[in-house]
Amino acid sequence: MSKIEFINGNSIIELHQAYKHIESLSKSYPDFYDWYWNKVIPGINNGINELIMGLFKNELVGISIIKKGEEKKLCALRVTDKFKNRGYGLHMLDESLKRLEIDKPLCSVSEEMINDYSRIFVNRYDFDLSHVYKGLY
Fold first, then answer.
1. Which of 17, 46, 63, 81 is the most buried (most CB within 10 A)?
2. Mind listing the pLDDT tens digit for each residue in 11-46?
3. According to the model, what pLDDT value does residue 87 have?
4. DSSP string, 33-47
5. Do 51 and 15 form a contact (C-beta atoms < 8 A)?
6. What is the pLDDT of residues 77-104, one digit of tens each?
7. Cβ proximity of 52 and 93 under 8 Å
């Protein structure tokens, strides 16, 4: 696998491009639009949140949103369809953990997506399931 370039999405164009890529998450997460534009973006502006864009030959591989404040959290991680199931998601997650400076950040996963992530989170990263919240998403 060739090397991915990681950049911070800070420009309005990058922030819109990122939203277009992850807006499908709104099917699982209520008020997703509001969360992204009214919490994530202000958090990027004040340095608490970081939007990481993975690029391969200037083509978008994936998006990761992390929260670097007192609460260290992996907020979102998506890989584009072209790059799915080819190991790029692991590189995106590795970069996110490196920037968070923590091995086991908080993260929440909707019930619809838990099967997609549980094997990787548990087997590769040794994450723990600490809480199950009914009706949250």
1. 63
2. 999 999 999 999 988 887 888 999 999 999 999 999
3. 83
4. HHHIIIIIHHHHHTT
5. yes
6. 889 989 988 888 889 999 999 999 988 8
7. no
Q: Which residue, chain included where needed, has tokens 């939007």?
A: 51
d(CA 27, CA 72): 25
Contact 6, 54 (CB under 8 A): yes
DSSP string, the chain: -PPPEEEE--SHHHHHHHHHHHGGGGGTSTTHHHHIIIIIHHHHHTTSEEEEEEEETTEEEEEEEEEESSSEEEEEEEE-GGGTTTTHHHHHHHHHHHHHT-SS-EE---TTTHHHHHHIIIIIT--------TT--
User: Residue 35 CB: number of other CB atoms within 10 A?
Assistant: 17
Q: What span, in angstroms and rounded, lies between the C-alpha atoms of 97 and 105? A: 8
Question: pTM of the full predicted structure?
Answer: 0.85
Q: What residue type is assigned to position 34 of the chain?
A: D
Supply 56's token pair. 């391969």
